[in-house]
């Protein structure tokens, strides 16, 4: 069933392999969580427990600058807020934005480890906990998070004597990978958020996968088989903590192969490979997340999760899965792609542009001959290749001077 599964599996496996082979595990920062990073660098932070309408309890983290422009960073598949801090204050985006006086918020969507794994009634070993894909990230998690931010910053406005009638402050959104899919769901299912998001910057967006993924069908089949097997044995989390370490001990070649396919610039940079050692950087993933991506890959359209005709009738009132109405989306959007990205390929990202011409303001190529899906998180060049560009575009946009560039 799932092609994309493999794609995702591989880097994680590799991470574990590297752990076995290097001494880096003894270096404590590979085991740090987001909060460890913030504490180690004396960055003051606030934590908020956000409860979604369907009972998930997500930790929202903030590097506060009350009154400043608000930026929300949203992680992608298998990620968490750690991806925005794990290269430290000199390189990672969250620190950089904070130094530039932005009010920085870090989302943790359901399933993210360790900050998105609580629920009012369920535990993270129950099947029901893992019945989600980016549909639920966009339908439940992002609205709860953005509303909570507005509540907090609105309260700060009041106490500074501002007009109570002022509308909620707009949010600048930055997302990696599947976060873009969640954003599309958010703005099509809850159109009021089109007014609440000032700008969306999407790194390696996944919404257009048809005919794009650079893996052959045998690889895809084997991934889908793997996902099914996990489900059959009631393991609904696809890559639980520690899984890859074990797996890569017996299948190291496989791990290395897939990791190379997914982190291009890491191939030639030993230090980058070290970065894969982070204990919490990539893990988790629900079977449904992977199946939903596979359905998009197969159908060529941006559809909601397809339960099959009978259950679709109950859920969507039709035999077919709901097609998200992308013409609802009016948020100005900038798309970024890596030349060698094996999942969010250049063609796939241009396909999103073709579909969303009215809201896409720029399509930018990362200026490197080898830049792949997970390089957006772990490339040692991420500051100059990605973050500086992203911040420059954002500032130009805010001044009304963003150039329309399609690369
Ligand atoms: C953080 O603060 C502590 C205590 O003031 C200090 O010892 C430490 O060097 C600081 N760390 C950094 C990275 O600034
Ligand atoms: C959030 O929830 C956790 C677990 O219930 C609790 O320990 C923590 O104090 C809460 N934090 C806030 C800011 O309410
Ligand atoms: C999609 O949204 C647009 C804009 O709001 C609306 O005009 C159109 O009727 C919608 N299409 C469907 C199929 O709901």
From TrEMBL:
Keywords: Glycoprotein, Hydrolase, Lipid degradation, Lipid metabolism, Signal. GO terms for biological process: lipid catabolic process. One of its GO terms (molecular function) is hydrolase activity, acting on ester bonds. The active site is at 177 (nucleophile), 341 (charge relay system), 373 (charge relay system). Residues 1-23 form the signal peptide. Residues 38-86 form the Partial AB-hydrolase lipase domain. Belongs to the AB hydrolase superfamily. Lipase family. This is Lipase. It comes from Drosophila persimilis. The lineage of its organism: Eukaryota, Metazoa, Ecdysozoa, Arthropoda, Hexapoda.
